[in-house]
Amino acid sequence: MAVQMMRRGGGGRVTGRIERDRDQAHSQGGDGGHGALAGARLAFVGAGVMAESMIAGLLGRGMIDPERIVASHPREDRRRKLTQRFGIGAVEGNREAASDADLVLLTVKPQVLSGVMRQLHGRLEPRQVAVSVVAGAGIGTLSRGLGHDAIVRVMPNTPAQVGQGMSVWTSTPEVDEGQRNRVRVVLAALGEELWVEEEKYVDMATALSGTGPTYVFLMMEALIDAGVHMGFPRRIAEQIVLQTVAGSVAFARDSGKHMAELRNMVTSPGGTSAEAIYQMEKGGLRTVFSRAVYAAYQRTQALGREESGKEEG
Ligand SMILES: NC(=O)c1ccc[n+]([C@@H]2O[C@H](COP(=O)([O-])OP(=O)(O)OC[C@H]3O[C@@H](n4cnc5c(N)ncnc54)[C@H](OP(=O)(O)O)[C@@H]3O)[C@@H](O)[C@H]2O)c1
Hints:
By secondary structure, this protein is an alpha/beta fold. The chain contains 13 helices and 9 strands.
């Protein structure tokens, strides 16, 4: 079954993996890169928030030397800022950035992707891998748009901006094991990464992890409002809810127990949790989550079809 083919990046906790990556980087050294990135050149086409998170993560972990990274950006002030902050190369032209790179990361917004792909069409050599983090852009669209076969499609999420992201990704058969390892190291700079064998799982991840922070933020907002309704000052309610969520995640990870088991541990007969659970089930909270995620999945598929349609039209 396809799901059994998934490989989990670094396993367990993010910090554990970062330490391992750093150890690996220091023990292996290399030609301007380290470990899997030894000798590699990276190009970021469109250097905004997502590219900056990756660059900061990679350099912060010592996974690659700044001279081996180049970013393209249309604005001169942005290029100057990138060079000053990271010591990386920054150029205006997307073609120029991509020309010498082993991994060409497409980190532009979806609205400009087709224009960028037109610029790069037929320019990538077979040894180069195009890695797209652009939401909604399917492998077919990327491959046709670039006139290139070695493609990686990634679905990151916003906590990547603080190194706590969940990136689910897949690759075409033209991307070999060594290239996949390079991609894995780059994505680990954003948090956890998970390779999946089939693209449909990236669509599913778009609904679950890509859209995921939205569900969690809405839930936290509702809890904070409930705290304020009871009489807590908002700042205090925020502190309580943020730590309750962070602590619950840490506890769930650490214990490895099923969520229902963890919930049962604090649900005493006739107690407060039992009363709260009764109200949540009565209000259909579980069904609302299920419907929301499925609706996001269907929307992802519809947007993908629209993109392919635009391309053909
Ligand atoms: N941010 C996240 O947490 C997140 C999460 C999941 C997926 N993603 C995906 O990541 C991609 C990038 O998102 P982002 O948040 O990093 O966006 P962003 O901050 O807007 O970065 C894109 C950068 O590309 C620049 N740009 C515009 N036109 C360009 C062109 N023709 N050639 C080269 N660069 C160009 C933009 O410059 P200007 O600022 O001057 O327009 C901007 O600095 C998106 O496709 C999004 O779907 C992001």
